[in-house]
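[Primary structure, fold]
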Amino acid sequence: MKAILLAGGKGSRLRPLTLHTPKPIVPIFDRPFLQYQIDLLRQVPEIDEIVLSLNYQPRRIEEVFGDGGDLGVQMTYVVEPQPLGTGGAIKFAAGNHKGDPIVVFNGDVFTSVDLPAVIALHKARKAQATIVLTPVDNPTAYGLVETDDEGNVSGFLEKPSPDQITCDTINAGIYVLEPDSLDRIPADTVFSIERGYFPSLVADKATFVAYTYRGYWIDIGTPEKYRQAHHDIMDGRFRAKPFHNTPGTAIVSPDAKIEEGAIIEGPCFIDAGAVIKAGAHVKAHSVIGSHCHIGEGAVIDDSILWPNTWVDSEARVTGTVTGRHCHIGRNATIDAGAMLGDKSVITDYSQT
């Protein structure tokens, strides 16, 4: 079987973090985001090739994953000649694949869905396409997917008003597709799988099945959801590395240097080469990337610092995400919600 990861987006909602770091390799703790999707695909032994569909900074992504050998998978790469939309990208990445169904993941999806069960349903129903759905608390903010009593997809509602709501399930961005069904998608054309391919299946009464998953699912494409994903792993709501066996704790690399008098409050993560000086306080839900330096008396509270960030003495960083090689001056104060791109400099005594 072939799996396609749609990883061509520019990550605009995560800027400035994604100006120099494509979204598929944005770090979750010490691992690139896409590696969590690859771990999920490895649960299916039949999947023998993972294709990354790329468009934005493809070489940076390929440098990280290579041929997949270090991860125990075979990885190949296709680069769209121009953005083709979700449907066009899938058709382009599928190439001449025939036979086995194709598994597709949107590049923002962070989940623990039972992928073998999804594939089993697809095969049992002899479906042309299977879509994973997930429930949401506020259906008016999303496009809803309606199903009948037998689990067939029956219709779509795009951001309905309260009186139009008939269900609470949305497209989770995970599909199993029969290769011959991709003939519905024109070649080398901008085409949406959500607005073109799926509605055509419903209109033609093809076997289009829904798998409703009520476990962990999140779209990490916004700063708020990116930080929430870290919280959920640290707190054990989503069991994943590096907290899969020890949620709620402080995980500190043996190659980090924690000086006497520093305060480390779990759950948090401190990577290799980091230095936490005496009197510094790393508070709960903080992530200190590799080779970061936290000065004397500095406070890092519910923040994510990418590698090689330097925080001077008595600075206070709260609810912030920094890119790589940032410098936060002494006695500076950064309030919740800040996003600092790579190499940002906050001068001494500044307040944001």
Summary: The two ends are 50 Å apart (CA to CA). DSSP finds six helices and 30 strands in the chain. Residues 223-235 form the longest helix (13 residues). Helices lie at 34-41, 58-65, 85-94, 115-124, 193-203, 223-235.
